[in-house]
Amino acid sequence: MNNKKRKMKLDPEEREILEVFHKGELRSDIKNRNELKPIIKAAVKTSRKSRNINIRLTERDLEKIKQRAEETGVPYQTLIGAILHQYAEGKITPRM
Fold it and tell me: Which of 41, 45, 50, 96 has the fewest CB atoms inside 10 Å of its own CB, making it the most exposed?
């Protein structure tokens, strides 16, 4: 990929949060460190180390995935991982 700045596609809620952040208006509702502990625990559990897998794709499919990933500004492996995550969470279903 070239050195152009990557542009992420954000949904309206994400754009609103980013706008508030850039204005310096984003504030935490956390009043003390004890409230933060369960949030940190959940974040650590969610971000457990990823595992590598091997997968076979046709050359044509891989090239199409790489092209779409470049269009959206994300690495193709990240795109594949995001799609698999959405499937695992039941957010998308395959059409066969």
Answer: 96
